[in-house]
Specification:
About 45% of the residues lie in helices and about 10% in strands. By secondary structure, the protein is α/β, with parallel strands linked by helices.
């Protein structure tokens, strides 16, 4: 049988025939259904996925009329550290707008965490003000909640990653709860400074990197910010496809956070006042691209059906079926983008 070019989840080339691709698609859908307890893709949708994957062109695109917008995390640094071009953040944002045609971007500090920004807010606010004077597209201020920075020796609370292996469960939970309150204050403070500097919105990126307490801190900060600045846009991007239960008992508005998948995460994000939700589906580098894509689209389809706010799927390296490699191949990225938009019904990427 004819072999079709595709890839593994690490980006390496792979040739599969029709039967093998169909088997990979079915297994990917099945894995998402089993883990997320969500409906599978229809036969027609799986057939269309097969067409997208086996298209003979190198780079593909959405059908005319299905174009969508993009947003970005730490976008101001991409030219500098990926293209290796020496350029300050304000200039890089103008290049993204005037040369690359970006729809929106975020301005962030090189130490991309809210706690690190607190001490230099006056400097960051000035950069935001200058960027706003020279651009038209929406510019958000972005950073990670990064709750781990609040642990000793860098922060004031005990390190739950050290307490948990020693069996100190109650102490670990108490430390996380204390860190949540400190982080909420910092994120709210920074949002206020950026609002005054003219920021179009805030980007809470990689939420959940430190587990369910990390997500709770972001949700509580967003709720407080929206109450004070109801017109300020908020984008919330996740760190993984399900929320790790480092605490295990934390709830937001009656919903336990540990173990939530994208279609459940978006619901609590809406309650907090999030304007755009960025779900993640992790790429398995040991599986094929067809397997990863079918799985990602199944998860995202369930998420967009549950959502009442725009959904911008994370499609960076290692998420959204994008291969886990520093420079993801365009053939895989474009196919993932097309499938997530046309089948997954994503509002943006």
């Amino acid at each position: 049988m004819e072999k079709h070019f595709t890839r593994m989840g690490d980006g390496s080339p792979l040739y599969l025939d029709r039967k093998e691709i169909c088997s990979e698609l079915a297994e990917g859908v099945s894995d998402a259904v089993r883990r997320g307890k969500i409906p599978p893709l229809s036969t027609e949708e799986v057939d269309y996925l097969f067409e997208i994957i086996t298209s003979p062109v190198n780079v593909t695109s959405v059908a005319r009329g299905s174009e969508t917008v993009t947003s970005s995390d730490s976008g101001a640094f991409k030219i500098s550290y990926q293209a290796n071009i020496s350029m300050d953040r304000a200039t890089a944002i103008q290049v993204h707008e005037k040369v690359l045609g970006a729809d929106s971007l975020d301005l962030g500090n090189i130490d991309y965490s809210y706690k690190a920004v607190k001490a230099i807010l006056h400097d960051e606010a000035k950069v935001m003000e200058n960027v706003q004077l020279n651009t038209v597209m929406p510019v958000l201020y972005g950073a990670m909640p990064n709750l781990g920075l609040y642990t000793r020796p860098d922060g004031p609370v005990e390190n739950w990653s050290e307490l948990l292996p020693r069996g100190k469960i109650a102490e670990a939970r108490a430390a996380q709860e204390e860190a949540v309150e400190l982080a909420v204050k910092d994120m709210s403070y920074i949002a206020g400074g950026m609002y005054e500097a003219g920021a179009d919105g805030m980007n809470f990126d990689t939420c959940g990197a430190s587990g369910d307490a990390d997500v709770l801190a972001a949700l509580k900060a967003i709720e407080a910010i929206k109450q004070k600045y109801p017109g300020l846009g908020i984008e919330m991007g996740m760190s993984g496809e399900f929320i790790l239960g480092m605490h295990g008992r934390l709830e937001y508005m009656g919903t336990r956070l540990a173990g939530l998948y994208p279609h459940q995460q978006v619901t609590v994000a809406e309650k907090a006042g999030v304007s755009i939700f960025g779900p993640v589906v992790n790429t398995n580098s040991n599986k094929s691209f067809p397997w990863n894509l079918a799985r990602a689209v199944t998860f995202i389809r369930a998420c967009t059906e549950a959502a009442r706010i725009p959904v911008h799927v994370n499609v960076g390296m290692g998420v959204g079926a994008t291969p886990m490699t520093p420079v993801p191949p365009a053939d895989a990225v474009s196919r993932a983008s097309k499938a997530l938009i046309e089948i997954g019904k994503a509002d943006g990427l």
